[in-house]
Amino acid sequence: MGLGTLLLTFLSPMLEFLAPYLPGDTFPLYFEWEMFQRALLAALLISIVAGLYGTFLMLRNLALIGDGLAHVSFGGMAVGVALGSVTPLNTALLFSIVAAIIIYELQSREILTGDTSIAIFLTSTLAFGLVVLSKWGDGITTDIEAYLFGSLNMIDPASLDMITLLSLFSLVSLAVLHRGLLAMTIDSVAARVQGIPVNFIGLWFSITIAIIVVSMVKLVGVLLVSALLVTPAATAQIISRSFRGCMLWAQAFGLSATFLGIYFA
Q1: Lowest mean pLDDT among 45-59, 106-120, 158-172, 181-195
Q2: pLDDT above 70 coverage of the chain, percent
Q3: pLDDT-derived band of residue 143, with 50, 70 and 90 as boundaries?
Q4: Domains plus CATH for the chain?
Q5: What is the secondary structure of 21-75 as a DSSP string?
Q6: Residues 6 or more apart in contact with residue 260 via CB below 8 angstroms
Q7: Which of 257, 207, 226, 2 is nearest to 104 (CA)?
Q8: DSSP state of 173
C-alpha cells in the first residue's frame, strides 16, 4: 500500500461523514466515492504545496518558472509516450529537473535573466514535444489532451501515491530550508555573508519547483499549472502586509479555488 493510499484510508471515514452536509448533487460524491476521494485528496495536497512555494516564487520574481517547467514536462511526457512508457511522467520529471537546473545556472551566473531562459525553454520544449508526438507518436490523442488540460479522472492509486510522495518531499524541503530561502530571497548578498549556502538552497528550490510542477500536471494540466501556483500567491501578496500573512492567504485562496473548481466542474 502506497503512501497516498494509506493517507486516503485514514481520511476516507471523515470525508464520508461530511458528505451528507455538502451542497449540490455531484459535489458530495467527491467525499463518498473512492475514485473521487483520490482526486479530492490530490487536489488538496497540490493546493497546499502550490500556495507555499508560490509565495516564494512571487518574492523571487520567478512567477513564469511554473509555466515554463510545465511546458518542459510536456516535452518529456511526449518522449515518454513515443518510447512506449507506461508512466510518461517519469520522463517529464527528468526533463523538468534538468531544465530547472539549467535555468538556475543561467540565472545565477548572469548568462541570461530568469525570464529569458524560461521563455527559451517554454517555447522550445513545447515545439519539441509536438514534433515528437507527430513523428513518433499518435499525435494529440485524448490522453495527451488530458495532460494538457488536466483531468480528475486520471488520478488512479499510483498517481495519488506519486502526488503524495512528491508533496511530502516538497513540504519537508521547505521546512528544512525555509529560513535560508527567505534570507536569500530578501538579500542574497547578506545571506551569503552570513554563511548561508545560497547556491545550494537556490538549486534545491529550483529542483523542488520542477517536482511540484510535474506532480500538478495530471490534475490541472500543463496549460493551467501557473493558475494554481501563481494566482493565489499573487492575490495574497496584494492584500497581505506580512510574509506569514501572504502564505496564509495564499493557502486560503488556493484551497477555496480548488473546492469551487470541483463544485462547479
Answers
A1: 106-120
A2: 95
A3: low
A4: 38-264 (1.10.3470.10)
A5: GS-SSSTTHHHHSHHHHHHHHHHHHHHHHHHHHHHHHHHTT-TTHHHHHHHHHHH
A6: none
A7: 207
A8: H
Cα-based torsion angle of the residue sequence 9, 10, 16, 22 in order, rounded to the nearest 10 degrees: -120
Contact 123, 6 (CB under 8 A): no
Number of neighbouring beta carbons within 10 Å of residue 127: 12
pLDDT at res. 15: 86
68 C-beta neighbours (distance < 10 Å), count: 29
| pLDDT of 140 over the 60 cut | no
Task: Kindly tell me the burial class for residue 18, based on how many C-beta atoms sit within 10 Å of its own C-beta (0-12, 13-18, 19 or more).
Answer: exposed
Greatest mean pLDDT range, 142-146, 149-153, 239-243: 239-243
Length of the chain (residues): 265
Residue 172 clears pLDDT 90, i.e. is over it: yes
Mean pLDDT of the chain: 85
What residue type is 238 in one-letter code? Answer: I
Determine contact, residues 66/96, Cβ cutoff 8 Å: no
| Composition of the chain by helix, strand, coil, percent to 5 | 85, 0, 15
pLDDT of residue 209: 92
* Distance between CA atoms of residues 115 and 73, nearest Å: 18
User: Where do we find the cell 513515443?
Assistant: 82
**Could you tell me which residues come within 8 angstroms of residue 110 by beta carbon, excluding any fewer than 6 positions away?**
none
**Cα(254)–Cα(233) distance, rounded to whole angstroms?**
8
